[in-house]
TrEMBL record:
Domain of life of the source: Bacteria
Residue stretches making up the Heparinase II/III-like C-terminal domain: 435-561
Protein name (record): Heparinase
Alphabetized InterPro entries for the sequence: Chondroitin_lyas, Hepar_II_III_C
Originating organism: Pseudopedobacter saltans
Length: 645
């Protein structure tokens, strides 16, 4: 089935206020160094021959798609024939400012957009024109909206009152860009058919896309996500908005000179996104955002490559290859991923996107990962471009080895993420991941030195991950949220003090080693705490002894022991204390032991009730924080906790 693509958009998109202040690391400028504006003018296709899909009229071209996939899409469209498009009132936008509620605006908007998307795809598959009238109804609904932007993103209007739409200006955010791109493909494929049923529809649609997206992109340089005119803010918004804007520009802009300049402008902007990434290619926003960050870079670069007749090809760059490989390198098993930052532990990336990226960079492991995901998930995002790419690649995907790559260890040196598993290409045994970095990363949680531990690819010690986004999520009150605080990550509480947010709160050292028998990592974490923690030195070490055990060791020196100091671990499994110094966990029927030094630490179990539906779905009704509390008379010591079968 096709997942609802706007659900992904609305769950993932963050506000620009907080926790995304990222600065370019290297002036690589791969795109703009590869070609000048004048050279681009000689490369750019001025017609639509760059589009790699058949025209609507070419029914033979659509017939090559697997019949079961076509029928799935047609059935989906049939289910939307009686859909009643919803009006999104101004009060729904105001709700974000008054109560912090995004959903009251986002849900009906998403459902309207999903209906149009489903109907368009169904019409492309069937070609009988029976879905056109309902598509027109959806187009009219969207055209009547004052803005295609989301209520949470109206700050892009500038000093306008929060929650109030400024009808005198257009803004491009994640919602506006995505809707614009969807409608641009609708126009491209169905222009004649729309006018056949209601003359003037295509002209009206073209005018709205031009006004809201194309002209706005061409005229404005001040959107923070563009990172132009001295702005240095950059994250997934940059490439996501640029990809959607580029789609609209290529399909809708009729003025050749304006098109060339606008395409080059997207290249200048996307260079800022690529420049920010570290050489290791890790997505510090987490795997939930990989599809929007690295994945949309693939979409963007695919368009650039196609429209320049393969003359601009960044898929050969080692950095781009590393950015692609991240998504399979952080795969644990059973749909679980390493979910540092604002990420869910379980995600379902788009298999076609992953296969296509792997094919573009010549990475057989990534192609296999895409084929593996495709066994159980035909579609995911619902983006028309991504969906059509998948449909026309499906036969190749079905012929590809579908075994997921399961590396025995992965090291992201610059981003400071280390991963190790007991057995290569196996879901059995222990799997851990740990991180260093700093507490000003994109979608940051205060979690320097934190780790996760899985057994037989089932969660044991966890990262809670991301909950429902509200106005508080991206505000000065972000670290009042229980899931972003260091208290509820697998790091120490020192003299009653938690880690703090900011680039200055970071790891002081990060040393990694791997061999056939073990993986070890040590991280200096004292600099992640403010002076009030009264800590001189704190080194957190991890040792995965393959096939045997996982050990957490803390070596530290305190200036004072004048508050609660504890090693805190979060789990969704309530442990049983069999005796002092030993706990056991039931991990899907397997018993796992945890031993701690009871002469140095006291044990306490704290229940954390969950109320947020996404977190309840992921972890159940409660989580548990294990607190191993340092005894009062200790200032300088090392402590060891060992977990084994």
């Amino acid at each position: 089935m096709i997942k609802v693509f706007y659900n992904r958009l609305f769950l993932l998109c963050g506000c620009l206020i907080f926790s995304i202040v990222l600065y370019a690391q290297q002036e690589r400028n791969y795109l703009t160094k590869s070609v000048s504006v004048a050279q681009l003018a000689g490369m750019l296709s001025t017609k639509d021959e760059w589009v790699n899909f058949p025209s609507y009229e070419n029914r033979a071209g659509w017939s090559v798609i697997d019949s079961s996939l076509r029928n799935d899409l047609i059935r989906k469209a049939v289910s939307k024939l009686d859909y009643k498009y919803q009006f999104v009132p101004s009060s729904a936008y105001l709700a974000f400012a008054t109560t912090g509620d995004r959903g009251v605006m986002e849900r009906p908007y998403a459902q309207n957009c999903n209906a149009v998307r489903d109907l368009v795809l169904g019409e492309l598959m069937e070609g009988r024109k029976r879905f056109i009238p309902q598509i027109i109804n959806g187009i009219n609904n969207l055209i009547e909206m004052q803005t295609w932007a989301l209520s949470a993103h109206l700050a892009l209007q500038g000093k306008h009152k929060p929650g109030v739409i400024d009808s005198t200006q257009n803004i491009i955010d994640l919602g506006a860009g995505r809707t614009g791109a969807m409608l641009a493909w609708t126009y491209y494929f169905l222009q004649k058919e729309l006018d056949l049923f209601k003359p003037g529809t295509s002209a009206k649609l073209s005018s709205e896309i031009q006004r809201r997206i194309v002209d706005t992109y061409e005229e404005r340089n001040d959107f923070w996500w563009m990172a132009l005119n001295g702005h240095k803010l950059v994250n997934n918004w940059n490439v996501w908005c640029n990809y959607n804007s580029l789609t609209c520009i290529l399909l809708m802009e009729q003025d050749t000179k304006k098109k060339i300049n606008a395409v080059y402008k997207t290249m200048r902007s996307v260079d800022k996104f690529i420049n920010y990434y570290k050489d290791d290619g890790a997505c510090e926003e987490g795997p939930s955002y990989w599809s929007e960050a690295g994945g949309n870079l693939y979409n963007y670069l695919s368009l650039i490559k196609s429209v320049t007749n393969n003359q601009i090809d960044l898929f050969v760059q080692p950095l781009v290859k590393n950015m692609a490989a991240y998504i399979y390198n952080v795969y644990i098993g059973n749909q679980y991923y390493v979910n540092f930052a604002d990420a869910h532990a379980k995600i379902i990336p788009d298999p076609g996107l992953i296969y296509g990226f792997g094919n573009a960079i010549g990475d057989d492991k990534m192609k296999s990962f895409g084929a593996f995901l495709a066994k159980n998930e035909r579609f995911n995002s619902g983006d028309i471009f991504e969906t059509l790419n998948y449909l026309f690649e499906q036969k190749n995907i079905s012929k590809t080895s579908n075994l997921p790559p399961l590396p025995k260890d992965v090291q992201y040196k610059e981003t400071q993420i280390t991963i190790g598993r007991d057995k290569e290409n196996s879901l059995e045994g222990f799997y851990f991941a740990a991180k260093g970095g700093n507490n000003n990363e994109s979608h940051n949680h205060n979690d320097i030195g934190s780790f996760i531990l899985y057994y037989n690819s089932k969660p044991l010690l966890i990262d809670i991950g991301s909950g429902t986004y509200t106005a508080k999520t991206f505000s000065a009150k972000r670290y009042e949220l229980f899931n972003t605080r260091s208290l509820n990550h697998n790091v120490p509480l020192i003299n009653g003090i938690e880690q703090q947010a900011g680039a200055q709160f970071k790891s002081s050292s990060y040393n990694y080693r791997s061999s056939a028998n073990d993986v070890s990592l040590s991280i200096g974490i004292e600099s992640a705490y403010p002076d009030s923690a009264n800590v001189d030195k704190w080194e957190r070490s991890y040792l995965l002894s393959r096939g045997k055990s996982f050990t957490i060791k803390d070596m530290f020196s305190l200036k004072e022991n004048n508050g609660k100091t504890s090693d805190n671990f979060v789990t969704a499994i309530k442990p049983i204390q069999v005796k002092s110094g030993e706990l056991i966990f039931n991990v899907s029927g397997e018993v796992v032991k945890l031993k701690y030094e009871d002469e140095k630490m006291d044990y306490k179990l704290v229940s954390i009730p969950l109320t947020d539906p996404p977190l309840i779905k992921e972890w159940g009704n409660s989580l548990y924080r294990l607190e191993f509390i340092l005894k009062k008379n200790i200032l300088k010591v090392s402590t060891t906790i060992t977990i084994s079968k």
